[in-house]
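Take a minute with the sequence and fold tokens given here and flag any structure token that looks odd. Thanks in advance.
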Amino acid sequence: MEIRRSPHFLTLVAVLLIVFAVHDGYCFYLPGVSPADFNVESDVKWASRWDTYLLMTDDQIHWFSIVNSLMIVLFLSGMVAMIMLRTLYRDISKYNQLETQEEAQEETGWKLVHGDVFRPPTNSDLLCVYVGTGVQFFGMILVTMIFAVLGFLSPSNRGGLMTAMLLLWVFMGMFAGYSSARLYRMFKGTEWKKITLMTSFMFPGIVFVIFFILNALIWGEKSSGAVPFTTMFALVLLWFGISVPLVFVGSYVGYKKPPVEDPVKTNKIPRQIPEQAWYMNPVFSILIGGILPFGAVFIELFFILTSIWLHQFYYIFGFLFIVFFILIITCAEITIVLCYFQLCSEDYLWWWRAYLTSGSSALYLFLYATFYFFTKLNITKVVSGALYFGYMLIASYAFFVLTGTIGFYACFWFTRLIYSSVKID
């Protein structure tokens, strides 16, 4: 016999449950259960109550990511050690010995371009701006990760990580102005105020325009996820009221200091660059240089994208800090290796190529984000897709500035080191 569950039957069951329960205030207690049984003091400390939600069950994958990145770093470190300890030592010894010989011998290799290697590049103003912005971004990321590793940034405080990053970005403006002005002074520039304005407005301005367009799309959909106008006004106030003055202070201090002296003199007439082999083509070497830095972080990048777009918690900042340190070493080493090969082929235009070599890893980041969109996400609306690619464009642009600056400073230190070790008349 089949029993039909009519609405009257469900109502009767609900009434019986209420009758057999004991009502006390706003709570219902089952028969035989004391109210004191619900007031049990927990042994878990308040600071550790998020551990259940933040427990990562895939820590083996993160360790695999770190081991994979360490293998890349060891491979690059071996190449750099071979170049620095063997090849460079042999080159420097040979060049210094040739200076003592009576017969004149023709110079070859990277010493041949010593009179042009520190010649200011084309669009040097723009390079100074991007280097200063990269220093600002590097300081923001480093301090944020240190705070996160020490436990000051908890996911229980929603938005705390983004708020900390924005505030640190504002206060790191002084280092941005100082770095761009110092490099601009080394290039013998005179319009330091123009460089300061470009450093203050170029990167934040591009990001703000993209963010405003994306937020306007959310407003058009009448979504509650749109950033309020008051918050946008507060961001602009932080930008113009604190960040821009700090950039001017840093630029003034950096420009007034004595300029960085080049280890060798620059010739008045630039020498002609010989025809290069196909593998030393700038586009090819730049694209090759970005693969290894991206390979060192792409596994961790998967978990970051998952936490952002699939609403999962990401709290393994210890792993992330190790991967960030590996990224710094990888960007520096791959740029040094390719810069050495470039100088050996008598191509002295290394300034922009050093920046773009490690910065090209941002291109692979955006391509991976595109692959992630079509394989992991189920987004069908045009506005949602525009939001995804817009935010990932901002992230890739910031990654380009960060990695490019790391590679540039590594190459800058490398060239000054090798040319200061050779006797040049």
Observations:
- The mean pLDDT is 80.
